[in-house]
Amino acid sequence: MAEYPYWRRNLWVLWLAQFVSVCGFSLSIPFAPYFLRELAPYATDAQIRFYAALSAFISQLGFAVFSPIWGWLADRYGRKKMALRAAFCGTLVLALMGLAQNALQFILLRALQGILTGTIAASMTLIACTTPQEKQGYALGIYSSSLFSGDMTGLFLGGVMAVNFGFRNSFHISAFLVFGTALLILFGAREDFHREAPTPTEKSTDGLWRTALLPALPALFIYSFSCLAYCLDESQVALYVEQLNGGAAQPGRELLTSLTLGAGSLGAMSAGLILSHFIDRNPSRIALLSASFAGLAMLTMALLPRWLPATPRVPVLGHTVTWGALCLIPLRLLTVFFAGGVDTICNTWISKVTLPAHRGIMFGISRTFRAVGTCSGHMTAGAVAPTLGITTLYYIGPFYFFLLAAMVFFLGKGICRRIEEVNRLTNQP
C-alpha cells in the first residue's frame, strides 16, 4: 500500500464531504413539488405533477448524458478537479434555485443540475483511483453508507427547515452546505495525478471500446438491472403504506411513510458499513445471496400484510395503524439492506475490471446505466400500479431480484477473470 499513502484519509474526507453534500441536496430537492406550487400559484394539481415529473426527468437525463463526459475529463485532467467542479457547480445551481421566480426557471436549473453536478460519481472515482485494488470493496462500501445516511438526515431536517424557513430559504441553506463540501475536498482530499499515456490501441474510439467498455459491460448490465429492481416500488411506497393503513382518510400515513422510507435508508447505510468488510473476499457469492434475500424480503412485503388482521389497530406515536402497514418498516429495511449490498458490489466490480487510466469515464458511464435502470423502474411502476394495483409491484420486484441473482451466477465468473487480468496488468496482488 506504499503507492497509496493517503487512501484512508481520502476515504474519510470524501465520506464526510458526500454525507454533507447529499444531506444538502436532500434538504430541498425532495420538496421541489411544493416549491413549484409556490412558483406557479395558478397552476392546477395536474400541471404541478407534470412540472415535478418533468423537472426530475430532465435532471436525470442531464446526468445520463453528461456523466461520461465529466468522467472522460477526469481521466485527462484529474479526479479531484472534477470532484471540485461538481461541488462548486452544485453550490451555484442550488443558490440559483432559491432565486427562481417561476416554474420554467426552476425546471431549467434542474437541467443544469444534471449537466453540471454529479458529486457522487466524481467522489467515487477519486476514491477508486487513490485506493489499493485489494481494498476497493471496503472503501466503496464505506463510502456508500455516506449517501444513504446523508439522504436520511437531509430528509428529516428538510421537513423542519421548510416549515420554519420556507422552501426558498431551504435551497440557500442547501447551497451553503454543498459549498462546505467543496472546501472539504479542496483542503482535505489529495491526489498526485499523473495522466497515463494511452497506448496506440486506446487512442481510437474502437480501442477504448475494446479495452475499457467491453470488459465492463457484464458488471454494468448487472448494475443497471439492480437499479431497475431496487427502484421499482420507490415512487409507490407512500401509496402502499396508505393502502395498507386503511386509505387516505386514516391518520398516521405521513408518519408511517417517513418511518418506512427511513428504515430503507438505514438498511442501505448498514449494507455499506457491514458488507464492506466482506466484499473483497467473495463478491460474487455475496451478490448472489443479497439479490436472493432481497427478492424474498420484497415478496414478504406483498404476502405478510394480507395474512395479518386489519383490526385491532396498533397505537404508534399518537396514531393507530394496522399491523399490515407496520410490518412494512422492518421488511423495507431488509429489502433495501440486501439490495444495497448488490449496489455496492457492482460499483466495486466496475472499478476493479477497469484499468486505472479509464476509471473516470467508466464511473461516468456507470451513472448512465444507473439512470437507465432507475428510469425503467419508475416507468414500469407508472404502467403497472394504475392498472394492476400497487401490490402487483411486490410480485414483479421479487421476480426481478431472482433474475438478477441468475445474472450474477452466470456473469460473475467472467467478471472475476477480468479482475484477475487487470491485477496482472497493474501488478496488483
Report on this model:
The chain has 429 residues and is an all-alpha fold. It has 2 domains: 188 residues, Growth Hormone, Chain: A, CATH 1.20.1250.20; 219 residues, Up-down Bundle (Growth Hormone, Chain: A), CATH 1.20.1250.20. The protein contains 17 helices and 2 strands. It has a two-stranded antiparallel sheet with strand order 1-2. A hairpin with a 2-residue loop joins strand 1 and strand 2. Helix 1 runs parallel beside helix 7, helix 3 packs antiparallel against helix 4 and helix 7 runs antiparallel to helix 8. It starts with 6 loop residues before the first helix and ends with a helix. The model has no long low-confidence stretch (mean pLDDT 83).
Blueprint of the fold:
Elements: H1 7-28, H2 32-39, H3 45-77, H4 79-97, H5 103-116, H6 119-129, H7 136-165, H8 167-188, H9 200-203, H10 205-231, H11 237-244, H12 253-275, H13 283-307, E1 314-316, E2 319-321, H14 323-326, H15 328-352, H16 359-388, H17 393-425
Short synopsis of the structure:
With 429 residues, this protein is mainly α. It has 17 helices and two strands. The chain has a two-stranded antiparallel sheet.
Characteristics:
globular, 429 residues, 17 helices, mainly alpha, Growth Hormone, Chain: A
What sequence of helices (H) and strands (E) makes up the elements? HHHHHHHHHHHHHEEHHHH
Strand content: under 5%
Q: Quick one: overall form?
A: globular
Number of helices: 17
CATH topology term of the largest domain: Growth Hormone, Chain: A
Q: CATH first level of the largest domain: which class? A: Mainly Alpha
By DSSP, the count of extended strands is: 2
Radius of gyration: 22 Å
- Give the class from helix and strand content and strand pairing: mainly alpha
CATH architecture of the largest domain: Up-down Bundle
Write out the CATH superfamily name of the largest domain.
MFS general substrate transporter like domains
Helix content: over 70%
Distance between the termini: 10 Å
